[in-house]
Every structure is written in C-alpha cells, then in structure tokens.
Amino acid sequence: xxxxxxxxxxxxxxxxxxxxxxxxxxxxxxxxxxxxxxxxxxxxxxxxxxxxxxxxxxxxxxxxxxxxxxxxxxxxxxxxxxxxxxxxxxxxxxxxxxxxxxxxxxxxxxxxxxxxxxxxxxxxxxxxxxxxxx
Amino acid sequence: xxxxxxxxxxxxxxxxxxxxxxxxxxxxxxxxxxxxxxxxxxxxxxxxxxxxxxxxxxxxxxxxxxxxxxxxxxxxxxxxxxxxxxxxxxxxxxxxxxxxxxxxxxxxxxxxxxxxxxxxxxxxxxxxxxxxxxxxxxxxxxxxxxxxxxxxxxxxxxxxxxxxxxxxxxxxxxxxxxxxxxxxxxxxxxxxxxxxxxxxxxxxxxxxxxxxxxxxxxxxxxxxxxxxxxxxxxxxxxxxxxxxxxxxxxxxxxxxxxxxxxxxxxxxxxxxxxxxxxxxxxxxxxxxxxxxxxxxxxxxxxxxxxxxxxxxxxxxxxxxxxxxxxxxxxxxxxxxxxxxxxxxxxxxxxxxxxxxxxxxxxxxxxxxxxxxxxxxxxxxxxxxxxxxxxxxxxxxxxxxxxxx
Amino acid sequence: xxxxxxxxxxxxxxxxxxxxxxxxxxxxxxxxxxxxxxxxxxxxxxxxxxxxxxxxxxxxxxxxxxxxxxxxxxxxxxxxxxxxxxxxxxxxxxxxxxxxxxxxxxxxxxxxxxxxxxxxxxxxxxxxxxxxxxxxxxxxxxxxxxxxxxxxxxxxxxxxxxxxxxxxxxxxxxxxxxxxxxxxxxxxxxxxxxxxxxxxxxxxxxxxxxxxxxxxxxxxxxxxxxxxxxxxxxxxxxxxxxxxxxx
Lengths: 134, 404, 247
Prior knowledge:
The complex is a heterotrimer of chains A (134), B (404) and C (247).
Chain A: H1 2-23, H2 44-65, H3 74-81, H4 99-106, H5 113-116
Chain B: E1 7-8, H1 14-40, H2 55-70, H3 72-78, H4 89-109, H5 117-122, H6 129-152, H7 160-183, H8 195-222, H9 228-258, H10 263-270, H11 275-297, H12 305-332, E2 341-345, H13 359-382, E3 386-387, H14 392-400
Antiparallel strand pairs in B: 1-3
Chain C: H1 10-36, E1 50-55, H2 65-74, E2 89-96, E3 102-108, H3 116-120, E4 126-128, E5 134-136, H4 146-150, E6 157-158, E7 177-178, H5 184-188, H6 195-203, E8 208-212, H7 219-226, E9 242-245
Parallel strand pairs in C: 1-9
Antiparallel strand pairs in C: 1-8, 2-3, 4-5, 6-7
C-alpha cells in the first residue's frame, strides 16, 4: 500500500517539476528583429512569463481609460518584433515565421489578439490620417 | 405524503434506438453548422445588421420558455396539490432541464464570440437583464436538481411542496426575465411590458403540449399506458392555456391599435401583404388557436389520445410561429428616428428589412432540439423517471393515498 | 589668437538671428494643437465631454465625404454585402411627409449620456468613457448583439466575417459589435478632431463640427448657444452628445 502511494507521489512530483521546462518555454524558438532596437522593454525571462499580463493590463488602460503609453503597447511590440521575410513582405500571423506565432503555434496556445489587431507594422505616411503600405 | 407510484428505468428498445438516432443526427447537424459559422462568420446566415436575432434565437427562446412551462406539470402536483399529476412530476422536472440545456446551447453557440463564454460568466453588468438571466437560468438548473432530489428520495418527499413552491416562483421570475429582454428595449415599438406575462402564458401552453407529446410517445413506444383521466386532464390544461395566450395577445394588439402612433407597426403586422401577417393569421391564430380548439371540443377527437396529440402538435407549431413573429417582425420593422419624415439611407433606414433564415440557422436550432432529446433519452435509461403505468386506475389511486 | 572669435558680419547676424527666432517660435505654432491634447499617459477626464454639431443645411445628398473618410480611417472594407457590411456613419435622406422637402443628415452613434446600449450589455463591454465617448471594449464583447437591438439610432454594426489587414490604430474583428467611437485613437493622441469632421472641413462644407461640450470657449459650445439645435429622439431622454441644426 505504501509502495503504491509513494509511487503516485513520485509520479505527481516529477510531472510537476519537470513540466516546468515547458512552462517557462526555455526551448522555444523566437525570431526577433534585432535591427529595430537593442533590447525589449523588459528582460527576456520576465517577458516570456508575463507578456500576456502586461498586454491585458495595457488593453484595459487604453480602452477604458484612454492611456496610450508606448511601453506595453501591442503596436509597439509589433513594430519591433515583426520583421519582413525574404521577399520583403511581412509573415502572416498563421505561419510560424511570425514572432508571436513562432511560440504560440509550438505551444498550441491560441491567442485571439490578431482576430482584431493588426499583426504587422504599417508605415505611416506624413499625413495625419494613417495610411497603409503592405 | 410518500410517493407510492411505481417508476422504472427504461430499457433499451427499438423505440429508444429510433429516438436516439434522430436526436444524434440533429446534434450532428447543429455541430456542423456551429463549426462552419465559427470559422466563416455570420455572413453565411440570414441575420444581418438590421435583423440581428434570427431563427436560432427563436429556437433558443422557444426551448427556454418551454423548459419553464414544462415544470408546471410538477408544480400542479407539488404546489397546487392536485395529486393526480404526481406520477408525472419527475419527468416534468427532467424535461425542464433537457429543454433549458438545449435552448441555452443554441443561444451560446450563436454568439459572435462563443470562446468568450467564460467572460460572459464572470463579468457582469447588473443593469442588463441578460446578466440577470444568466443567473436565473443556471440557478434554475440547481433548483430543479434539488426538486428532483426531494422527489426521488422517499424520506424527503415531505419537502416537495416547499421546494416546488420555490421552483414555481423561480420559474415565473425566469420567464419574466426572458420576456423582459424584449420589454426593456426602449426604442422598439413592437415590445412592451406585456411581453413578460405573454411569455409566461406561452410557456405554460408550450410546456403542456410538449409534455403530452412525450406522454404519447411513452404510451406507443415504451408501453406506458395512457388512461382517459390523463387525456381529459391534459385536454383541459391545453384549453385553459390556449385561451390565456389568446387573451393576452388580443389585449396587447387592441391596446396598441388604440394608439395612433403605433398604427403603422400594427398594420404592418396584422393587415399587410407580408409574411408576418400571413404567419399571424394562418399560423398563430389558425393553426395555433382555432384548429386546436376545434379538435379539443370535438366529441370524438377530444377523448382520444391521438386527437389530443394532434392538438398539441398544432399548438407547438402555433407557439413557434408566434415567437418567430414576435422576435423577427419587431426587428424587421424600421426604427423611426425622425417621426413625421420618411427616411432612407444605405443602412436600410425606413424600409422593412427582409429576413430569410439560412440552412445554417435551421441546423443550429435543430441541434438544440437534438441536445434536449438526447439528454432525456440518456436520463430515462439511467434513473427511474418514468412511471410504469398511467391508466385510470393508477392515476385515480393518487387521490386516495393518505399521508403515512 | 583669441579663443573665441565670432566671425559674424551683419548679414550673417540677421540671417542667423532670424533663423533662431523662427526655430523658437515655429515649434510652438506647430505643436500648439498637440499642446491642447492629452499626454499619452493621462487618462480621459470627465471634465471634458466630446460632442459634435452637425449643420444639415450644409449637407447635400450627393456628398458622402464623411462616410468615405470614416471608412478609410478605420479600414472598413466593402465586401459587397450591404446588409451585413459595417457602417459607422451613414447619410440619411429625410423627406417631409407633408411638404415632400428632403434633407440630408449624417447619422452615427449619438454618444448618449444615458445610453441604452450600455444598459443592456451583459458583460459591460459597451461602456461610456469618462470623457463621454460611448464605445465597445472588444476584449470583453461576446457578440450577443443585444446592444444592436437596443440602440434607437441603429448605430451599431456586427462584424460578420474574418477581417485581415486591420489598421493598427483601429482594431476590429469578427464576432464583435462596433460603432462610431469619435475617432478615439486620434483624440487620445492629441489630434482633437474626427476623420469625418476633418473631411467635411476639407471639402468646404463645414457641416460637422467636433469639440468639447463642457468647454464654454470651444467653437461647438459657442455655436450651440448661438443657433437652435435639436437632439434626435429627444423624447427618449438620452441627452446625446451629437446635436443637429436644420432638422
């Protein structure tokens, strides 16, 4: 009886302990456009674990309060992290070449951001009303 | 007050197989429709920016209202102490759960973002009747569960009266909440405070008719003999409720017709050449009110199980059509932003909007019906909901049973 | 040799000092509009109430510059399905039943102070911001369309299909309900004007005026005091932020 219980405890413990690797995404690939800047707004390990928390809080601040600070703005992330592929176009969010999808497809954790939000940077022309260049 | 009726767990048979196949096929259709709409978007449906709620909502509200009304059969026994209905109590409560589940599933699956159901169940705006309805519907499930427990567990049978009364009050509140979805729309001429009692009356009628349909199937398919006492009782119930619904309908329309401001809408609904007028007079009044009454007062038909079945089916059809008219015509009729002016625009102001249900909406609605049917079939094969015999001897014995 | 020798003759001096003067004053002129706008980290304040005054006397049936500007600003595509395609602003043609005179009226979300759409939203996604803008929080919207049923102005649209190529300042997506948000992205970034008002001013019609209803010195407040204006469906008691002349 004690053998069975202790085996169960060992199994649970190992599952929890060793799954930590996938939870912290240490082996996930990520493509960053290093040319856009030196570093991200937060250190990598904090970003990996909490980027959704920053984005959710920012979404609330922006929509409800109208605060549009740049640090955790989704557009700011996109402008830095999404780089064009070989032929000069931006990758579709459905492909793994897209920075966000690179991890999210591998982790099978679907995000709904890009149902509504633009998934690639747009170049603004020098008039007030923003126009788009694909 | 111990329930001395004999109940049985239904065994698998050809009738069950047939019923189950139909239910599962309907569920399959519903799932196909949901997956297609979820991927492609609602542009495939007939619903649009003018008629935003369509056939799925008619099905959903029909099933929800029927769920509330079908519990009435149990209430008649528990709350109003007419013991003849006691053997039907368990089925009544079970069917309430089945129909409510089916209706809610259609409602949820039609949402623009069903993936946000968790948001809907955790973020509430308490000024919205929709938010209250979420509590009323889920709470209703819990109340019925406790009601069933009181009915099943012999030593708790003495609490059936009190729990039944609570369930009755909850039912009325729930149906009022459903009617208030429409009553609380400030800008729509079609709806008013009478929506709530109208829905309550409709729920009683639909619940009784659907319950009788199930009883008939139990008689022919499961061998549960239906006696003339039950038939006569259901005949009377149907008559009472048909008249109640008819009364409130007439009251609502006559009052509205008295007000010149509402003439345009009332004439559009009652005296025009469109589908709603046709459905109202032929469907709701003809098939839903007059024809069932003719059957129910006919000497021969009113005494036969088949005759009452026919009346029940007509009543269900009439009730469905009535909900269709209520929900769709109120949206098809244009809003009057500038009284005294004729309006037109690229956004269909000033014109009566056309609405044609697409096949996806029909499938989704039928999927909800399938879910209700499937839960019922599953439940009766697992627990003893079904009374073994409903003939006159067993039914009239209920009146003689004395408190132990 | 002198350490500091300013090699400056009179011509040079005039040139350089005038450049200095212009470069000091010019940014002030350029940024003046921005200076009135909020800082990016400042929340919307209830001291402001944004509103619009629409002078339908200046509108013609043929012109729909406001509609085109709104569609361009928010990336609203034409899918060729007019019953389900989104419209945030539309031109209504009103014909008097007796006299048969017709007028052209731009109609959009009226940004009521007591919005029915906010009352009926089950999740609170439809809300009124502190500065009076009524909008949909698309993170919370479940797409039930109850707000569309309740709006007396039929202002809201439901997105019926998958969208691609959304503009970064105007996130929109399938399954959510949306309506005119008084170009909230422009307001928050300090450009205190809407796309429709700008387009109308550019076209020369001057029919749409946007501004702060709470500021007595603003153009809109002065015009509201000067001319007789109306609220659409005022019988409903909603106290809209959009008012009309000429109806």
